[in-house]
Design goal:
The chain is α+β, with helices and mostly antiparallel strands. The protein is built from eleven helices and ten strands. It binds flavin-adenine dinucleotide. Flavin-adenine dinucleotide (FAD) binds next to strand 1, strand 3 and helix 11.
Length: 377
């Protein structure tokens, strides 16, 4: 295997690493703040990394995209902002790029890729979290339109979004084949976005419920074919479970660098704390976790680019990266001790931002289920 990067890949990585350092500090943000910072992310190309150039994106394959997203996570400590942008790209834009018809792609993708529009992906419901077969939002065909009714929850970006990718049941009798995916304008009559959640992590990314009350969506806004929604969602998850999680590789790399520096600078009992094996070995494990997660994630992206990935590969990469991100943030919190809880280091915030990685894009338990299934269990 060739582990080297081309000049183009490395230049893209380095440019984003430098630019991401200027994206600003994390903190609770109003939807208007997100839109303002979105423009800076778009200027770095982050809103359209994996979108084909003819649709206004950078045209990167999955491996290059992961390399660049890692650079963003390493440079920008605001994981909420990075989560907002990558959820937009991988769970909203890419399903339309890969499954939308030509007219829909040309209508909406360029504006999403260049950051003019913000996208949000709405599948989760109060009674349908891990079990996405339990969706209750319905879409009934009527007069060239679909009429949507139901409520989605935990929709990241919704308070600021222009376009919502919505999964609704069009034929309850068909189960997996009875779900359809829609690209819905946020200002469609009958679409109501709730107040932003008061959430303790990834604060720069606002999330809310979205309610549909007899919302009429043109049939031309069906993504793919009616009944393909569940398959489209599963296919979008391969982007999210790999390339979005590359942001956490960046966070792990940043925390490891900071841990090394802190272990050398901080003195107790007359010597740097790095002289204690309990401290230096903890940092050695942080580095090991970063390298193993990166190898697994890059290998999975490489398989994706060759069309040779399986659900097992994707689940292994997501599970190991999410669990590594949490353990590494925990280790950094232990190592920085009291200073982890100051806004100067923001280490405790990094832990808070790592924790939901175990939950969104399918929980760690669900990834283990997929791995077990892939092993024939
Ligand atoms: C920060 C964040 C952002 C999010 N953004 C979005 C978004 O943009 N759009 C969107 O639609 N959703 C979003 N979600 C929702 C997310 O997808 C769900 O939280 C996730 O799918 C889990 O669903 P749940 O919370 O209902 O947990 P549940 O499904 O109720 O699970 C509860 C617990 O039971 C376990 N469990 C459930 N079923 C099984 C099983 N079969 N085997 C083993 N264990 C099981 C789970 O692992 C978990 O530990 C987001 C969530 C978070 C935290």
């Amino acid at each position: 295997m060739d582990f080297s990067w081309t000049e183009r890949q490395q230049a893209a990585h380095d440019r984003v690493l430098a630019g991401a350092r200027a994206l600003g500090a994390p903190g609770p943000a109003a939807p208007a703040d997100l839109r303002e910072r979105w423009a800076a992310c778009a200027a770095l190309g982050l809103t359209g990394l994996s979108v084909p150039e003819e649709l206004g994106g950078q045209g990167y394959d999955a491996l290059t995209t992961a390399h660049v997203v890692e650079a963003a996570g390493r440079g920008c400590p605001d994981m909420g902002l990075l989560f907002a942008v990558t959820a937009h790209l991988f769970a909203t834009v890419m399903p339309i790029v890969e499954h939308g018809d030509k007219a829909l792609r040309e209508e909406v993708v360029p504006r999403l890729a260049d950051g003019t529009w913000i996208g949000a992906n709405a599948i989760t419901e109060q009674e349908a979290g891990s079990d996405v077969t339990a969706l209750r939002t319905t879409a009934v065909r009527h007069d060239g339109h679909y009429v949507l009714n139901g409520t989605k929850t935990f929709v990241s970006n919704a308070p600021a979004a222009d376009l919502l990718l919505v999964y609704a049941v069009t034929d309850p009798a068909f189960g997996f084949l009875g779900v359809t995916c829609f690209a819905v304008d946020r200002d469609t009559p009958g679409v109501t976005v709730g107040a932003p959640f008061d959430k303790p992590t990834l604060d720069s990314c606002p999330a809310a419920t979205v309610t549909f009350t007899d919302a009429r969506v043109p049939a031309s806004r069906v993504v793919g074919q009616p009944g393909q929604g569940a398959a489209i969602f599963q296919s979008s998850m391969r982007w999210e479970r790999t390339c979005l999680f590359a942001g956490y590789l960046g966070q792990m790399a940043r925390l490891t660098d900071e841990a090394v520096q802190h272990a050398l600078d901080r003195r107790q009992f007359g010597h740097p704390i790095a002289a204690n094996q309990a401290v230096s070995h903890r940092i050695a494990d942080m580095r090991l976790r970063l390298e193993t997660a990166r190898l697994l994630l890059h290998r999975t992206c490489w398989l994706m680019d060759r069309g040779e990935h399986t659900p097992l590969d994707i689940a292994l990469a997501k599970l190991h990266t999410a669990e590594s991100a949490v353990q590494t943030a925990l280790d950094a919190t232990q190592l920085f001790a009291g200073s982890a809880y100051s806004t100067r280091t923001d280490i405790a915030r990094a832990l808070g931002d790592a924790l939901p990685a175990r939950t969104f894009s399918g929980t760690s338990d669900i990834q283990r289920e997929l791995i077990a299934k892939g092993l024939g269990l």
